[in-house]
Amino acid sequence: MRIKNKIREMRLKKGLSQAELADKIGVSRQTIISIEKNICIPSTFLALKLSKLFRKTVNELFTISKTR
């Protein structure tokens, strides 16, 4: 299984750069890059911070997909 996310899409809708998003939630720009590229799965705490910032549920931001 694989986790997909809508972080890049939501960030662009808010008009934020990766650096601005990182500053708002207290992580590095590299962390945002890793999350957007599905390299890194955020902690529950970070997922909740993103959820609050974007005013979306965690389930709206992150989904599990099956891989073959």
Strand content bin: 5-15%
Which word captures the global form? globular
Counted up, domains total 1
Radius of gyration: 11 Å
Name the strands of the widest sheet in spatial order: 1-2
Termini Cα gap: 8 Å
The CATH topology turns out to be 434 Repressor (Amino-terminal Domain)
Order of helices and strands: EHHHHHE
Category by helix and strand content: mainly alpha
Short précis:
This protein has helices spanning 7-13, 18-25, 29-36, 44-54, 58-61, and strands spanning 2-5, 62-65. It is mostly helical and 68 residues long.
SSE diagram, text form:
Elements: E1 2-5, H1 7-13, H2 18-25, H3 29-36, H4 44-54, H5 58-61, E2 62-65
Antiparallel strand pairs: 1-2
Helix pairs in contact: 2-3
How would you describe this structure to a colleague?
This protein has 68 residues and is mainly alpha-helical. The protein has a single domain, classed as 434 Repressor (Amino-terminal Domain). The chain contains 5 helices and 2 strands, in the order E-H-H-H-H-H-E. The protein has a two-stranded antiparallel ribbon. The longest helix is centred in the last third of the chain and has 11 residues, at 44-54.
What features would you highlight for this structure?
68 residues, 434 Repressor (Amino-terminal Domain), 5 helices, 2 strands
